[in-house]
């Protein structure tokens, strides 16, 4: 039998063992523990932003279950690496991407089964815009690596919510051609873009003036000394009811003014597209390096939320 503990508890055990000439320990099963608070928490080993390769795209995107996951295993796995240990088990317990990835992939498959005609981008948008950022104590998600409140550079859009993701109301869709345009705007060579797209006929006749123009369900705003205003246009597709009306709710730091035009979107039909433009303006030179906010399109049924990260590079 073994017990896994965190660093704080581990340090206390080490201190006790070092200070007591006859240390003793009792290991016993305490039963399944429910209603742990706070939950969920961003794992200490989870990936962190900002996105150094393409700062105009917010990463990470979203978080999901991935710590100490007990799951069925394909085939069998040895419980130890000792060569004389011939036992095998059809189950295993792991933490990390190896467990978080299948959770998110399973949710994507669930959404695809419910909406067979949705594109990968639409499914991704549904997962991001319906994610939640409050734990079961009604507090912003905590970051286990620092023991404090997490930010979109730790949790992205938040923790996935399967039930809400099945009915997001609106989605930010993007085609394969949109992503090729995005790659071309990153100044990859044509050969590199063709290799990624696995299509020798691809060309870079279209480019975004800014990689952040990709119709992505989040925003990452980079202010520079000669670029205090950033303006992006997004397109939303109505996957909810016909005759739906959405109003925008903006949350941002005092150091940035945010305007959205139009402030109301009226969808007469299902699968109808509507565009909006959001302008971010930094208020002169600021002392902070980063800040966060959100843009949410809301009605009585849905809250379509996009996280926004701001970075100043003077």
TrEMBL record:
<dbReference type="InterPro" id="IPR023828">
    <property type="entry name" value="Peptidase_S8_Ser-AS"/>
</dbReference>
<keyword id="KW-0720">Serine protease</keyword>
<keyword id="KW-0378">Hydrolase</keyword>
<dbReference type="Pfam" id="PF00082">
    <property type="entry name" value="Peptidase_S8"/>
</dbReference>
<dbReference type="InterPro" id="IPR000209">
    <property type="entry name" value="Peptidase_S8/S53_dom"/>
</dbReference>
<comment type="similarity">
    <text>Belongs to the peptidase S8 family.</text>
</comment>
<keyword id="KW-0732">Signal</keyword>
<feature type="domain" description="Subtilisin-like protease fibronectin type-III">
    <location>
        <begin position="213"/>
        <end position="309"/>
    </location>
</feature>
<dbReference type="InterPro" id="IPR036852">
    <property type="entry name" value="Peptidase_S8/S53_dom_sf"/>
</dbReference>
<dbReference type="GO" id="GO:0005576">
    <property type="term" value="C:extracellular region"/>
</dbReference>
<dbReference type="Pfam" id="PF17766">
    <property type="entry name" value="fn3_6"/>
</dbReference>
<dbReference type="GO" id="GO:0004252">
    <property type="term" value="F:serine-type endopeptidase activity"/>
</dbReference>
<dbReference type="InterPro" id="IPR041469">
    <property type="entry name" value="Subtilisin-like_FN3"/>
</dbReference>
<protein>
    <submittedName>
        <fullName>Putative tripeptidyl-peptidase II</fullName>
    </submittedName>
</protein>
<dbReference type="GO" id="GO:0006508">
    <property type="term" value="P:proteolysis"/>
</dbReference>
<dbReference type="InterPro" id="IPR045051">
    <property type="entry name" value="SBT"/>
</dbReference>
<feature type="domain" description="Peptidase S8/S53">
    <location>
        <begin position="38"/>
        <end position="135"/>
    </location>
</feature>
<keyword id="KW-0645">Protease</keyword>
